[in-house]
Amino acid sequence: MEHLIKEILVEEEEIRKRVAELGAKITEDYKG
Question: Among 1, 3, 10, 13, which is least packed, fewest CB within 10 Å?
Answer without folding.
Answer: 1
